[in-house]
Amino acid sequence: MCDREQERDELRARFTKWMEVTLYRARLRYLRKESQKTETVPLDEVESWYLLTDVSSKGRFEFEQDRLAEAFAMLSHEKQAILSMLFAEEMTPAEVARVLHCSPQKVYDQRYQAIKSLRRNLQNGGEEK
User: Fold this and answer.
1) What pLDDT score was predicted for residue 54?
2) Overall average pLDDT of the 100-115 stretch
3) Separation CA 9–CA 111 (nearest Å)
4) Would you say the pTM of this structure is higher than 0.85?
5) Fewest CB atoms within 10 Å of the CB: 1, 17, 24, 117?
6) What is the phi-psi region of residue 54: left when phi exceeds 0, alpha when psi lies from -120 to 50, beta otherwise?
7) Per residue in 48-87, is it b (16+ CB within 10 Å) or e — as a string?
8) Does domain 58-128 have CATH number 2.170.130.10?
């Protein structure tokens, strides 16, 4: 009987040690993961002068916006309309298809081609300058 109790105690001790090590490692993984997250600041704590600053006065933002407007103007009217309805008016592809009297698949295809054209035009514009 004494050997069995001693064996149980040894198993219990091993299990306890295994649990401690497992929890320790899990805690370390959790802390590493949490430390990599970007800290956020509640809007209430942001100073009012920062909220009142004009973002477009930075210059680079205006430049990027102008390049995007130029690339958008190079698209066909149909692609411009589809992108406007999808992103500005936040319509679903099915709603856009009903408005344009076409299939939703055509809306998906035109959206893909329009975004691809925008990327190509923006990259080409960036290389030239």
Assistant:
1) 53
2) 92
3) 67
4) no
5) 1
6) beta
7) eeeeeeeeeeeeeeeeeeeeeeebbeebeeebebbbebbe
8) no
